Target: Radical SAM core domain-containing protein
Amino acid sequence: MLYRDMFTVSWLLGRFCNYKCSYCWPYARSDKKDHRPTQLCLKTVDEIKRQARERGFNSFHFSLSGGEPTFHPGYLDIMKHLANDVGNTNFTSVHMTSNCSRNMKWFEEYVKIVSAFHRASITASYHREHVNTQKKREQFADKLCFVQEHDVQVTINQVMVPEWFEDLWNESLYFHDRG
Model:
């Protein structure tokens, strides 16, 4: 691993989250939008890459999380900025950990942008306290099927609350059957 040119960045874009899950620890989320300005984020990306390249790295993996990272007002701009440099890298991949609560239109824009990367992936956090009807589960699954159709790799994570275990197991099977 020491001799690969992959530079990995794990970036918590802010603690703001639109969900209030009962099992989330207090310091992991916030009701306050605490995002850094987009231009500062773009300059930070450039500085990270400059320093990495000075040290012989020219492949990059950016993993973005939060809170809920998709609510950073410049999230898609950050993705575009990263995408604009793909041609100057040996390999670039992006990953996000998200509750996938944004609407389908947002995901349509997202897949257009991430198509520029060598690899894109999502860890979709399924939160039954908020995705709490069959219609909401279908919408959650629809978005994940859609991004997979556009070559975005998907993993679903969910908290298995003991009292809900059977229901959550059946919902897991539903997502499995949906693909």
